Amino acid sequence: MTISIAKKYSKKIAISTIFIIAILSCAIYVYYKYTHKKVVLEFGTFVGSMYDVPDWQSYKALDEAIFKFEKANPSIKVKYKSGILKNDYSERLSQNILKGNEPDLFCVLPGDFNTFASIGELKNLDKLIKDDKSLDLSKQYITAIKSGKYQGSQYAIAKEVDPELMFVNKTLLKKQGIELPSENWTWNDFYEICKKVTIDTDKDGKIDQFGTVGFDWKQAVYTNGQKLFDTNGNKAKFDNEGVSDALKFIILLNKLNKNYTVNLKDFDDGKVAFRPFPFSTYRAYKVYPYKVMKYGQFEWECIKLPKGPEGQNAGQLNSLLMGISSKTKHEKEA
């Protein structure tokens, strides 16, 4: 009788022990699975260059960044859809936003930023930036930082920046006995060189060599240190004296061409001394094989733009921004 009771008691203990072990095993499995579950972070981007220049390695920098990020954060997997063209990107992204399946973070083209920020699609980054001691925005251009601000708050950070430079036909200047301008050259230097090179080379009574193409009133305004609108974009400043001086300078430049409208073909044919160019174009066409495909018939270089009386040797800065979706479930990871 005693042996039977002992056996039953031992059996109950064994069953209870197995049950407890099973529960603990399940708990450990669920805990492990939950704590080690990979977060899939989706990044929205497009193929090629934002600046419409050859870029056969458009995904290289992104892939390298993802590799380093995933190595440092094994619980996070980053994915993106490849092959989306820049011209289709805005529409694809907008459709995904309407459907509620937008990426966790994504590239923002300049023309889309204000729209996305104003409708609440982009997350306000002020607190995240403040709490992240490893992030140093002072390493970026001030203008690039400002391009990601909306109503005083930061909603995006620049992924790429593309400053504007002055493309110089060195062969043409050398032919006219003119040296490459210095880095701190002025409107007056610019005008005098344009005046010297604007000539009729074949003596047929028509001007066929020119000073500049593409340097318009906007470049003149910026290089004269002027702003067309106030900080909030509510008030125009077109009537400033500095803006007026910029317009007068453009009129003076255009008079050199005797009513002829200089075009890009003239420049490509080596008949124009100066043309404002984005740095992305300089970078693309300064290396083989693109170097021999375009602008290979003359020597060329890029320098800063000429400064007006109230400005600096600086041009426009275009930025490709990155923002975080306000609807992301993975704010920390993004």
Write a brief structural summary:
This protein is of the alpha/beta class. The chain contains 13 helices and 10 strands.
Describe this protein's structure.
By secondary structure, the protein is α/β, with parallel strands linked by helices. The chain is built from 13 helices and ten strands. α9 crosses α10. It is elongated, with a radius of gyration of 30 Å.
Give the SSE map.
Blueprint: H1 2-35, E1 39-44, H2 60-72, E2 76-79, H3 86-99, E3 105-108, H4 113-118, H5 126-131, H6 142-147, E4 149-150, E5 153-154, E6 157-169, H7 170-175, H8 187-197, E7 210-212, H9 217-223, H10 241-255, H11 264-268, E8 272-278, H12 279-285, H13 290-293, E9 300-303, E10 317-324
Helix pairs in contact: 9-10
Label the structural class: alpha/beta
CA-based shape = elongated
Bin the strand percentage. Answer: 15-25%
Rg for CA atoms: 30 Å
In whole angstroms, the N-to-C terminal distance is 68 Å
Keywords:
334 residues; alpha/beta; 8-stranded mixed sheet
